[in-house]
């Protein structure tokens, strides 16, 4: 009786049949009558012909579409018709070779999603694998199940709170547990759509500062930007950092020296590099507090002036006022101090009198102001007025009742002597005045006519010398007093004396008034008077001289 065994089949490509051989160690026992034997396997029955020791078992294989090693086909002998099974050779194997190419993996772009959603990238192999395949990416691994060619990579996106285009998400294949990566399709992109509204910018009022400080205006956007945003204003630009909604505009203020309210600082938004400007909140204001004290006014003495000039008194405030002109009142008139200034000038005209001697000082006192206050410690100011008149000497006149002659002298001593010793000389007071000797004066020479008991006065040196040479009865008494060289030297008080000579009495007379001159010329003083023209120039007497 035969004992059967089975041998491995030669390897075949998937889809072909494996051919296993079953062999006995003897022919079938009933070969002589033409009967063979049969061997049963788990893959079918193998017939052994009469007079033969072998039989073949064809096992078809499946031509699948998946890449990867196929499982070996194992055939086991289970029974025989007349013989027995070799227990040590009752199993055989057949290898099935794969006919698919190794898969090559690529990735495709994900459909765009709104930020916060999932980007779905598809990873695809050219061939399905017979086992699960893991494809590695820089966003995580993708599992492609056995028999499938695709898998999905889920990438969660961030739902941020900033406005602006989101960066694309890039996914790159980095490796695979089977096959290879397509180098030209290993990267894919996913677009993330923005869901935040564009920012609208506004500006708020700054907190008040003392002048010289910085006003801080806050510019605010309704949404943060994904990148730095520049908001322009008429006072400079404001940078709002990426991810932030606010920025600060610093506006320095001027520390002036003027008292009074400062103008508000207004800031207007003019543009932005992202988003828009809120039309109802594009302007803000900053208040600037004054740090100057209210002005206190005082007045300073004026520089000396010559009489007839203007005394200039300066009124000064401790602080200027920027908002209005200031009026400071005085007992000599008002002073205007312009806005922004600290000083004003009071002009006080002085009188150009005709009297010689010191003028009284001009005193000015502040009486009030329409803003600020008057310094209570400030004394009234004084202006000195310098005299421009030369010293005047009264000319005393006497009338000699004996000779009917007029006598003139500036000597108080001579006047007193005459009053004591000459009873015929009637004192008529000071009729005019003469200056002290100076650059603008001339000498007045006096002669005594011993023949007639009268006096003669002249400013002419030639006439003096002629008289001395031709009139022996005229005694030269020297210079009696001074007269002015011309009317301009005497000023407004100039008085020109008209000289008369009486041919009958040999007397001289000096008229100081036009009416007297006219009367003498018309005979009012009697006959014999000859008008010899202007004698010399003197000055009208001052108030205190008339009865001196």
How would you explain this protein's 3D organization?
A hairpin with a 2-residue loop joins strand 38 (326-330) and strand 39. The chain is 6% helix and 52% strand. It folds into five domains: 3-97, Sandwich (Immunoglobulin-like), CATH 2.60.40; 104-193, CalX-beta domain (Immunoglobulin-like), CATH 2.60.40.2030; 200-289, Immunoglobulin-like; 300-386, Sandwich (Immunoglobulin-like); 392-539, no CATH class. 28% of the residues are buried. The longest helix has 10 residues, at 412-421. It has 548 residues and is mainly β. It is built from four helices and 54 strands. The chain has a five-stranded mixed beta sheet, with no helix packed on it. Strands 12-21-19-15-16 form a five-stranded mixed beta sheet, with no helix packed on it.
Notable characteristics:
548 residues; mainly beta; Immunoglobulin-like; 5 domains; five-stranded mixed sheet; 4 helices; 52% strand
Q: Rounded to an integer, what's the Rg over CA atoms? A: 71 Å
- Structural class of the helices, strands and pairings? mainly beta
Count of runs of 4 or more consecutive helical residues: 4
Helix content: under 10%
How many domains would you count in the coordinates? 5
Enumerate the strands of the largest sheet in spatial order, edge to edge or round the barrel: 2-10-8-4-5
Instruction: Give the termini distance in whole angstroms.
Output: 198 Å
Strand percentage: over 45%
User: Mean of the pLDDT scores?
Assistant: 94
Q: What's the total number of strands?
A: 54
Low-confidence stretches: none
- Overall form: rod-shaped
- Sheet with the most strands? 5 strands, mixed
């Amino acid at each position: 009786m035969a004992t059967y065994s089975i041998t491995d089949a030669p390897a075949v490509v998937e889809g072909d049949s494996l051919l296993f051989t079953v062999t006995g160690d003897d022919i079938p026992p009933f070969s002589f009558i033409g009967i063979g034997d049969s061997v049963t396997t788990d893959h079918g029955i193998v017939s052994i012909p009469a007079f033969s020791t072998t039989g073949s078992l064809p096992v078809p294989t499946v031509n699948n579409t998946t890449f990867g090693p196929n499982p070996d086909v194992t055939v086991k002998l289970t029974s025989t018709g007349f013989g027995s099974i070799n227990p040590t050779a009752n199993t055989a194997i057949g290898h099935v070779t794969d006919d698919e190419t190794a898969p090559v993996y690529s990735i495709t772009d994900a459909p765009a999603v709104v930020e916060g959603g999932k980007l779905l990238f598809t990873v695809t192999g050219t061939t399905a694998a017979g086992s699960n395949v893991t494809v590695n990416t820089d966003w995580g691994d993708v599992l492609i199940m056995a028999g499938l060619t695709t898998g999905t990579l889920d990438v969660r996106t961030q739902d941020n709170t900033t406005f602006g285009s989101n960066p694309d998400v890039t996914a790159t294949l980095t490796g695979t547990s089977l096959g290879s990566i397509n180098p030209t399709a290993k990267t894919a992109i996913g677009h993330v759509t923005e869901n935040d509204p564009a920012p609208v910018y506004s500006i708020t009022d700054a907190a008040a500062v003392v002048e010289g400080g910085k006003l801080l205006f806050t510019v605010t956007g309704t949404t943060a930007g994904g990148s730095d945003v520049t908001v322009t204003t008429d006072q400079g630009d404001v940078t709002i950092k990426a991810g932030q909604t606010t920025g600060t505009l610093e506006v320095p203020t001027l520390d002036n020296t003027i008292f009074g309210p400062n103008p508000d600082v207004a800031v207007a938004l003019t543009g932005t590099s992202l988003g828009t400007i809120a039309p109802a909140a594009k302007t803000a204001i900053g208040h600037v507090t004054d740090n100057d004290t209210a002005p206190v006014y005082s007045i300073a003495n004026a520089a000396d002036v010559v009489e007839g000039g203007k005394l200039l008194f300066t009124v000064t405030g401790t602080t200027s006022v920027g908002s209005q002109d200031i009026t400071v009142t005085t007992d000599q008139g008002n002073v205007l101090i312009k806005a922004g200034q600290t000083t004003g000038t009071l002009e006080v005209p002085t009188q150009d009198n005709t009297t010689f001697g010191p003028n009284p000082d001009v005193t000015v006192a502040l009486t009030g102001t329409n803003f600020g206050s008057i310094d209570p410690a400030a004394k009234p100011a004084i202006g000195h007025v310098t005299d421009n008149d030369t010293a005047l000497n009264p000319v005393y006149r006497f009338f000699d009742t004996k000779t009917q002659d007029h006598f003139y002298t500036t000597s108080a001593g001579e006047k007193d002597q005459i009053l004591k010793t000459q009873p015929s000389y009637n004192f008529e007071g000071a009729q005019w005045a003469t200056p002290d000797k100076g650059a603008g004066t001339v000498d007045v020479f006096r002669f005594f006519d011993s023949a007639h008991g009268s006096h003669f006065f002249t400013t002419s040196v030639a006439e003096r010398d002629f008289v001395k040479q031709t009139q022996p009865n005229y005694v030269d008494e020297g210079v009696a007093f001074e007269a002015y060289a011309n009317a301009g030297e005497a000023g407004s008080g100039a008085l020109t004396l008209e000289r008369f000579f009486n041919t009958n009495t040999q007397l001289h007379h000096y008229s100081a008034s036009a009416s007297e001159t006219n009367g003498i010329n018309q005979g009012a003083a009697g006959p014999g008077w000859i008008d010899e023209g202007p004698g010399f120039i003197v000055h009208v007497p001052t108030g205190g001289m008339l009865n001196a």
